[in-house]
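Submission sheet (multi-component)
Chains listed below:
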Amino acid sequence: MKLQDITILGIQPIGLSLALSIKNSSIKTNNIVAYSENSDLVNSVKSLNLFDDVNKDLQKSLDGSSLVIIDSPLIEIPSLLESISNYPDIKTVLNLNGSQSKCMTWANDILDKSIGYIGIRPILKTEQPDITNISDLLLEDLDICLMPSTSTDKKSIENVIYIIEKIGANPYFLEVSEHDSYFTAMNKLSDVISAAYVNATTTKSSWIEMYKSAGIEFDQLSTNATKDPVTNEAECLTLSDPLIYWIEEMIASLNKFKDTLKSENDDLLNYFVHAWEQKAKWESGALSQNLDSPHMPSASEAMGNMILGGKLSKRLSGNDGPSKRKNWQYPK
Amino acid sequence: MKLQDITILGIQPIGLSLALSIKNSSIKTNNIVAYSENSDLVNSVKSLNLFDDVNKDLQKSLDGSSLVIIDSPLIEIPSLLESISNYPDIKTVLNLNGSQSKCMTWANDILDKSIGYIGIRPILKTEQPDITNISDLLLEDLDICLMPSTSTDKKSIENVIYIIEKIGANPYFLEVSEHDSYFTAMNKLSDVISAAYVNATTTKSSWIEMYKSAGIEFDQLSTNATKDPVTNEAECLTLSDPLIYWIEEMIASLNKFKDTLKSENDDLLNYFVHAWEQKAKWESGALSQNLDSPHMPSASEAMGNMILGGKLSKRLSGNDGPSKRKNWQYPK
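Outcome: structure written.
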């Protein structure tokens, strides 16, 4: 398979890393072009000398392209889709934006049906690098979620699966509405919790004294409050239904905690043990097995502790033999 | 000033780092001894060769000591205070545990009034190192909160201030009840939010599909759910009053967010802008100025962006001149 030109719309770490992975894989490509209307971003990526062209001329960037990767803020996406429609050579559009349902609606309305549109989201396990430190290893071994529109042709989907496997990642498919609910719970909700935490603590009169007691824990939990408010607002508005659902679940969980705190039994301990075990279960990879079937530890699970390294391994090790408890269960 | 022997009860990073800072400062000391009943911890700290003795014999560890630093889990503290009472040479006890009110009550009940008891908490700005990577630089330049009991003599307090200044940190004083409220909001609440988040998301039937969409954001927000549930339970019980207050504030803040999400005006944007600005204000150090007085930027504030480095500096920079907006205000 040989791809024609690839264009990345928007200069952001994931889109650039994806393009770099393709460039450095065994896939044959023509030019890889990155576009942004921001001159500073264009200049700093240009100086990396990683792509064939980096520029702020949208028409020039799209001309001759067959695959377009969108990695842009939500508000820019309708006009980008309009522009894409003017280039008949474009076969496939991949969109990395988090508000997939909204973008899918726009794609269905705006794009010609001959263009295969696929929402795409890599499930990152590490912090996003800044754009001057992008790496073709960022997406290696990651799960990458794909959401094709109903009109997307089989060929486009096959090509994208081919590309993802060639860069060493694992494709899986979700419905956009499922994606938006999961993305909200696993990602967007943490931005809301972070902002809610800052607004809860800094608006009290005690803040004028309390700020001095704020250290790394405050800093960490408030990290996502530093994301751009305008982007946060746009994403929350397009994810408002799942967001309301998950915020209500979060409030219910906090209320349950309050009740256990007042109880005189083991409920409070069990609350923390449950969270401890669920986190350990996720971390150890035990969830990818069928939990209803009789438990036969896989090689990867048996090696889990060693592979996952020090911190988890220490937490998960106990005095019981492995036959007595599963490795994610809290030793008590 | 010359200190006699110093004993650290409990082998944990902060207590050991504090002792190491004292050892490597210009303060003259006799032996510095670290105690734990855990043989593994004793052996791994012994092999660092940083202290005069590391052992699991409590009596031997306390014998001849004049300053004791407690850095132990809450449940062990009453019995440690009992033991300390048997050593008339001990002049001062510093306690690093987070549940200061509870510990203060125990200290008042158990310790002889001739022993100066002071709760102490350094406000860490970085992750705690593990015990094999402790550093005499960990506490440098940090604020260290001090909470003496009412019966603590002036001499003990002066000595502790002297020590803290000699290791390059800044002492400040709080009432224990204030400390517990602030500590709960700035520290303990993040453990509860983390566990509540894991319990909210992993108990739904969707989790069996959703876990695959969990990446770094889930990992980060659930980090504190990995803390030992037994310790978490004990700390929450001793901090239950401030905890209930702050959980209710957090719920109110989430409810307010839900309302702004449904509003048709700028409330949602303003919610994020408020959080963004409060975080920036804290990060830039603007809170330590008197905000009611006419604003004259201090040298440190003017240098703030440069000192704080890339990320914040980029966020706080805009096209407006510094005279038009304060450096923590969101540029809109």
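Remark: Residues 260 and 266 of chain B are 8 Å apart (CA to CA).
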